[in-house]
Amino acid sequence: MSNKATIQLENQTFEFAIIEGTEQEKAIDISKLRDQTGYITLDNGYKNTGATKSAITFLDGEIGVLKYRGYPIEQLAEKSTFLEVAFLLIYGNLPTQQQLTGFQTEISKHTLVHEDMKKFFDGFPSKSHPMGQLSSLVCSLSSFYPESLNAHPTAEEFDLTIIKLLAKMSTIVSWIYKKSLGHPYIYPQNKYDYVTNFLNMTFGQRTEEVVIDPIIVDAMNVLLILHADHEQNCSTSTVRIVGSSDCNLYASISAGISALWGPLHGGANQAVIEMLEQIKNDGGDVDKWVNKAKSPTDSFRLMGFGHRVYKNFDPRAKIIKKACDDILEKLGINDPVLDIAKKLEEVALNDPYFVSRKLYPNVDFYSGIIYRALGFPTEMFTVLFALGRLPGWIAQWKEMRENKEPIGRPRQVYVGEVDRDFVEIGDR
Ligand code: CMC
């Protein structure tokens, strides 16, 4: 096979290199297209555009494969912890015991947030959405740690920023939850591992030590691992593109959090439960809602179905579906929205509209049901997604910087008015 692609334009032939990834993904390198031909490509939503070469996550949406640094998601979800996966994503290899202990210890030293940050929590109205709070609070870390503004830190300085962000994020997320309840904040405790510490700050009481059920710790680890990275999605691309202007890590991640908030992306986990509740309260007629989703004149979509890159079962959804059944059984929870979810899944998976468009349940279809079983309010779901995605965002930002990628700046095809002369206001 030729390693060149040819494009014919205006009776001229141009050649472009073909690039092949380690998993045999092929791309045409058009980085010189405009210089050579005067043309650009147009690809709304970047459906066919590779924005970077990356060695972090591989996914094949046609057959439903997801790997972090070459390790299948199924093995990581079964055998590792969230912190091990975070290390793997950020530094490229699974940690040795010594590296993992060192990573955990360093994180434990930085879990406290500056006492002045509490004023930010106090300042948010009690009904403000946790994602808005999270985005603002993460951005505000750049004010507390101005050394992060250095666009060219040493490796040690950068590592410290990473550790601080991982450490403080779990405290910030827990405190957002406590704020929503009006309960006192619980301070981090170094004796716990990352996930137990997070759950203790979230569900603990000030006066007594709360013993977190290991079933809940395990479920939380799995959920965070499954969300830890997903290559160049909307929020990750946002993090990379914001960081490409030499903007600091905290502000770049804060932008990613905002991108994740939308219901077409991470916000879908909240939207799924709200939709299931709506269907239940409407009498539970699943067919009626499936028909609404299929109607070209109705903007309603089945939340938790479909994915930009998976045209097969989302491998994360398979793992999470099983985890969901297990946790509900172990905790003895009988959730009526689960019955609606199961019915909806069955109807949609057999309906020609969904089958022909390859619309399968995605990770968000089940994650909300587990978060709910663990006791989290609906508005916290996307914040938990963000906590899980943090190592992936950091890894992608680090890779982008280490590869010295240029500032992200797409072009456009202008379709507006041409050459108009200004008209005085009285003459318009
Ligand atoms: N319900 C009904 N129809 C749908 C749905 C849905 N959930 N998703 C896609 N379609 C239809 C869509 O109307 C279109 O039909 P047609 O060809 O007749 O115009 C076709 O399927 C292709 O859809 P698209 O919007 O072109 O696909 P996309 O790749 O641009 O969008 C998506 C992907 C995830 C935004 C979309 O499937 C969707 O809105 N899903 C619901 C929201 C959701 O669950 N998002 C979470 C994604 S997983 C978490 C994450 O990684 O972000």
Search tags:
428 residues; mainly alpha; Rubrerythrin, domain 2; Citrate Synthase, domain 1; Cytochrome p450-Terp, domain 2; three-stranded antiparallel β-sheet; 18 helices; 6 strands; 52% helix; globular; binds carboxymethyl coenzyme *A
Describe, in plain words, how this protein is organized in 3D:
This protein is mainly α and about 425 residues long. It has three domains: about 5-55, Rubrerythrin, domain 2 (Single Sheet), CATH 2.20.28; about 65-265 and about 390-400, Orthogonal Bundle (Citrate Synthase, domain 1), CATH 1.10.580; about 270-375, Cytochrome p450-Terp, domain 2 (Orthogonal Bundle). It has helices at about 35, 75-80, 80-90, 95-110, 115-125, 130-145, 155-180, 195-205, 215-225, 235-245, 250-260, 270-280, 285-295, 315-330, 335-350, 350-355, 365-375, 380-400; strands at about 5-10, 10-20, 25-30, 55-60, 65-70, 70. The strands form two sheets. Strands 1-2-3 form a three-stranded antiparallel sheet. Strand 1 (about 5-10) and strand 2 form a beta hairpin. Helix 6 (about 130-145) packs antiparallel against helix 7 (about 155-180). The protein starts with a strand and ends in a 26-residue tail after the last helix. The relative contact order is 0.13. The mean pLDDT is about 95. Carboxymethyl coenzyme *A binds near residues 268, 293 and 306.
